[in-house]
Amino acid sequence: MPIIRTELYIKAPAQLCFDLARSIDIHAESTSQTKERAIGGVTQGLIELGQTVTWEAVHFGIKQRLTARISAMEAPHFFVDEQVGGAFKHFYHSHEFIISGDGTLMIDTFDYASPLGLLGKLADALFLERYMRVFLTKRNLYIKNVAEQRAVAAK
Q: Rounded distance, CA 70 to CA 22, Å?
């Protein structure tokens, strides 16, 4: 079970970072390379505790669907989304926002298990863990850029 953890300092308030990270619209923009779009549950705006979203995207040339539910939330400090349906055996994705100086430390932890037992572990070692790390890092950098642009514009 790989665990991917990233930390990113953002020169923007925690509330702004928190809201951008749970924005359906920002998620779709940040994952445009996989043609990701919300097709069920909350399909625009901010997702809240207990709500679900179903995403459709193309990964590895295959159209896939994944449904996640927000299982924990304490604004503006953290929220957790967990897979309730999709390609992974399971995933638990926590998003933390720690006020630090004049900005926010965003800590993203993605704990997942691939399906198919030994074959899934082999896929993780060969390509999937790296693919997911790059995917999450691009998304987080997108959030950072949008948050910092909005923070400057608000001054």
A: 9
Token output for 79: 């929220």
Rounded to the nearest 5 degrees, what angle is found at the Cα of 61, between the Cα atoms of 40 and 58? 20
User: For tokens 């924005």, what's the residue?
Assistant: 23
Q: Treating both helix axes as pointing N-terminal to C-terminal, what angle do 14-21 and 129-154 enclose, rounded to 10 degrees? A: 130
Helices (H) and strands (E) in the chain, counts: 4, 7
3-154 fold: Alpha-D-Glucose-1,6-Bisphosphate; Chain A, domain 4 (3.30.530)
Could you tell me the pTM of the whole model?
Answer: 0.94
Nearest to 147 by CA among 45, 77, 47, 139: 139
Distance (Å, whole) CA 23 – CA 118: 35
pLDDT digits (tens, 9 = 90+) for 58-84: 998 999 999 999 999 999 999 999 999
Q: Where are the domains of the chain?
A: 3-154
